[in-house]
Amino acid sequence: MSTSFSRRNVLQLSLGAAAISLLAACSAKDDGAKAAGAAGKEAVEIKVGYIADYNGAALMAVADQEGLWAKAGLAPKYLPFTNGPLAIQALGTNNVDVAYIGSGALWLPASGKAEIWAVNSVSNADRIIAQAGINSLADLKGKKLAVPTGTSGDQLFTLALEKEGLTRDDFEVTAMEPPAIVAAFAAGQIDGAALWYPLIDSAKKGKPDLVELFSNEDFIDQFTFPSTFVAGPGRAAKDKELATSFISVIKAANDYRLANQETTISATATFLKLKDADMASQASVAKLFTSKELEGLSAEGTIDTWLTALQEQFKAAEKIPVVVDPKTFYNSELYVSAPAA
């Protein structure tokens, strides 16, 4: 791994620690840690990190609406994050027990910083966008391009560079947080960005004629982009009951989402205090599976294949030094054996 890359990632994660502590103290949404569980016992509090979009919050909204947490004997306390690396940093500081992350942050579980408890969906939300009049990645050479380091947008940018035979040195790349990218793009301060929906919808409000240069779908034959729920490394072994209960909630919420998409869209909009129309557009950029399908994909090794391919891409981008057995950070047996709540 290059020294410059390693320092950049360590710096990013370190700088996030203070923000995480503040977020945990000020932004938590407490849904009742003292609620009664299914057996009449006091429910166990579980701190859940989410990202405030459809893909990152839908299952939380469904679990609330359908009473799935109480059925599993859990009481969630929610904490929002703007990206996966920050959420994983919070796992290490015990500010959250489990968190949602996109595919771009999976280099952190692969490097031993977290373990996967469940797959959420497969995403097609990421894009490389540019200002009007820029019609290719080559047209962006020498121009300002913003990338949220260590995220799925960063991952897509790496794939696009490889496809076009370009390098990061061909651009004036700036590491920025996603909300800052939206503001900078709308103000014309940057020429391009690696970002994802629904943030791109926000960027379009200021620049309706923006150009989409690349999407996940351009690489679907090579890579699958799963979003997941992760916990600290070794957490399931230490607290299997909590892990199993959480997965049972996720499975039940997942199947409800697939069978009741309109209701889920409305529930998620309510959860995030947004409009149903905003959620509807976001829901179209994710491929969903039933929990039984995910059990099969886990048991047969297909998800391990996804994770191996992603690691190879992360290694080429110098995010991880080696490709490891996915079983070291995804316990498929734990997911398969957990019953739905």
UniProtKB/TrEMBL annotation:
Gene3D superfamilies: Periplasmic binding protein-like II (3.40.190.10). It comes from the Bacteria. It is found in: Periplasm. Keywords: Signal, Transport. PROSITE patterns: PROKAR_LIPOPROTEIN (PS51257), TAT (PS51318). Its main location: periplasm. InterPro entries: ABC_SsuA_sub-bd, Solute-binding_3/MltF_N, SsuA/THI5, TAT_signal. Residues 45-260 form the Solute-binding protein family 3/N-terminal domain. SUPFAM superfamilies: Periplasmic binding protein-like II. One of its GO terms (molecular function) is ATPase-coupled transmembrane transporter activity. One of its GO terms (cellular component) is membrane. The keyword Transport applies. Belongs to the bacterial solute-binding protein SsuA/TauA family. This is NitT/TauT family transport system substrate-binding protein. It comes from Arthrobacter alpinus.
